[in-house]
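Quick entry between incubations.
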Amino acid sequence: MKLETRQVTKRYGSFTALNGASFQTGADARVVALLGPSGGGKSTLLRVLGGLLLPESGEVCVDDNPLPKEPEAALLALRRNGFVFQGYNLFPHLSALQNIVLPLRVVHGLDEHEANARAIELLTRLGLAEHRNKRPAELSGGQQQRAAIARALAPKPSLLLLDEPTSALDPVMTGEVLDVVRELAESGQQIVLATHEISFARRVADWVVFLAQGRVVESCPVEQFFEQPQSALAREYLQGLSRYR
Amino acid sequence: MPVSSSVTRLLWSFVLFLGVSFGVYAMFAQVHYAWNWSPALVYGPQLAVGWLTTLGLSLGAMVVSILVGFTLMIGRRSPWVPVQLFCTGAVEILRGSPLLVQLLVGYYIVATALRIGEPLLVGMVLLGCFEGAYLAEIFRGAVESIGASQREAARAVGFDATQTYRYVIIPQAIRRALPGTTGQMVSLIKDSSLLSIIGIEELVKKVESMNSASYTALEGYLPLALAYLIVTLPLSWYARQLERRFAYET
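Done. Structure below.
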C-alpha cells in the first residue's frame, strides 16, 4: 500500500492541527507508524488518512487514488476502513457482541446469522468469547480495546487505523493489545498506527511518518528513522522517549 | 435492596404518613369544616365520566407531545437555517406564553378558521403542542449530552446521520431524557384541566359543576386530587421501572 498526502490542512476552530502536511510512503509499506510529540497532529492525520475527517485543503491518496471529498462518496470510502481509538469508544448500551454485529448488519448488509458467526469468530480469536454478552462497562480496559479491535476488523477492512490504542491502558493490558496488533501485522493486515510505544513501532512497523506542529518532519523506512533520524526534532524526540526505557 | 433497608424504608413511610395525616387532621379540626359528602355520591357517575375524559385526553396529548417534541428537537438541530429558526421560535413562544391564551386562540381562532369543530381533538393537539415544546428541550439536552466520541465512533463504523441517531444517539439519550419526560407527562395530566375553557367536560369541569350545584367545595376537590394521583403515581412508578431497564454504566 502507498499512502500519500499533499499539503493537507485541517483546523479545529482557530487551532491548526495539520498545517500543510505532505508525505508519501514507499509503494510496499504495510504497517505505517505515525510518531511524534503530543499535539503534533498524529491523531488528525490518522483520521484524515482513514477518511474520518475531511481536510480543509490538500489531497490524500491511497495507492495513488485520491480520497473523495463529497460527503456521500467519502462515507463509502470510509466504510472500507476500520478504526480503533484511544478511548475504545464502544457503544455503552450494547454488548460486546452487539457492538460488532450491528454495523455488520446495517452498514455492510450481512444477515443476522452471518454477522453473528463472524463476530463470534473474531471475539474468540481475541480471547473474548466468554465476555461476548457483557456491556463495555463490565469489561476491563484491555478487553474493551480488544472488543473495539474486533469491531474494526469485522468488516474485513483494507486498512486498519489505530489511534494510540494503548495510551489509556496499564502495562499488562498494553501488552495484551499490542500482542493483538502484532499478530494482525504479521498476518498481513495493512495498518496505520499512531503511538507513543516506540519500541513496539520499531519492531512491527515498516514505515515511519514523524509529525510535529502539524507538519510531517520525516517520512522514511523504519530502520532509517531509528538509526539515522535526519531532523533535530526527531533526534530529540527519540532521546526523550528512550531515556527511561 | 437488602431486607433490613427495605423494612426501614417501609417503617419510615408509615411514620411519615401518620405524621402528615395527623397534621392535616389537626388543621381541619381547627377550622371546623362542615362535610357534606352526599352530593359527591350523587355526582359519582358524572365524575367518573369526567375522569375517563381526562385520561383519554391526556393519553392522546402525550402521543402528540412526544411527536411534537421530537420534531422540534430535530428541527432545532437542523443545518437548515429557516427550519432551525422556526423550531426555536415555536419552542420559545409555546413555552413562554400561557396555555390559557394558546387554548383560546387555538380553539376560537385557528380551529374555527380551519373549520375544525371538534373540541376534544383540538384540545388534545393544543395541549400536546404546549407540552411538546418543553419535551423538545428535554430531548435536546439528552441528545446533546451524548459525547463527540460516540458520534465519531458511529461515523467510524460507517453509520450515516440517520443510522447514528437511530442506533447510537437515541438509545442512549432515552435514558437521560426519561426523568424529565416523566415530570412533563405528570404536568400534562394536570394541565389538561385547563381544557374546560374550550368546553371540554373533563374532570375539573365536572367537579366545578357539582360544587356550584350543591354548594360543596372540598368534597369535590379532594376526590379530584385523589383521581389525579391515581394516574400520576403509577406513571412515576412505571417511569422508574423504565429507567432501571435502560440503566447501564457508562
